[in-house]
Design brief:
62% of the residues lie in helices and 14% in strands. With 361 residues, the chain is of the alpha+beta class.
Amino acid sequence: MRSNIITQKIRVKLLLSIVICYIVAVYCSMFSVSFIKSILVDDTKALSKTTEDIFSFSYFAVYIIAYILIFFFISKKKIEYIEYITKQVKIIADKNFSSTLEVRGDDEFAQLSRSINYMSIELKKKFEKERELEKSKTELITNISHDLRTPLTAIIGYLDLLKNEKYKNREEEKEYLISTYNLSIKLKMLIDELFEYTKLSSSGITLDLEEVDLGSILIQILGEYTPVFESKDLNIISDIDEKIPVKIDIEKIVRVFDNIFSNAQKYSVTPSNIIVNVKNKADTVCVSVSNKGEYIEQDKLSKIFENFYRMDVSRTSNIEGSGLGLAISKKIVDLHQGEIWAECHGDIITINISLPISYSE
């Protein structure tokens, strides 16, 4: 609709320019020929037919020249601007999305320039997003091959020992079987989490939203984790507001808190406290989970939500995990139009989650 209006305006202005050129050219030609007649001829009534034809031709010639000059004068800036737009569009077409058009005035061509600038910015965003996705895909494949190969190699090694009966006694055989089983479970967990992460990254993912009290859900989850924390000499301190209505996908949000509490249990020094705060702030609910651990530098802190990122870069840590837990949590929170981030003050690490009270689909 807007493009049709702009097209109509351009047509009207073009028609108006033609009419103005016509009127001015006619006036100029009549004035010029009349002025020449008055100088060269004393009695215009006594002119011969040949002379009249010459003056008529002169009138037509002056009209054409005047029309061309006036039209060129009126449209010169517009033509130059169109040439400039054409040149810049070719530059943008060569994937130079940082190039923008200078907006001159406030007419239809200025609107066209604004539209092209907007298009260029959007294309740049999409191109950068595609490049990031491609980079992420490459890193994902590299990390997958590493994380799958490590337990798989060990499983094959243990199975080879069992197949060739390279064990001293039944106890050693049982030890090999248990190690193979544990590595198989670890491999299954990694594949399951990888599948979930891939599914959450797809564009067609939908949320099964329900209106629930987030406070009640968190109290229930903490109740389930209390024996686990106590066995590790960790004490839970919670401050949860009553009645926190949110519209969430319960299963996915529970997965987020499972990942966060699991991380807190794995990386906390003992004995220490795990502090859970939940506050209702205007149109958002803020959840923070703090635990005492080793100081994390800011550059590493910003990477903990990346897929396969582990604090032990060499991946030789005894801490179990796929390195996908917090990456999955971030995907889920993003789908809920929320935010998740980490802070570290001294030896206190805090994971913060902000969720909208009113989720807009």
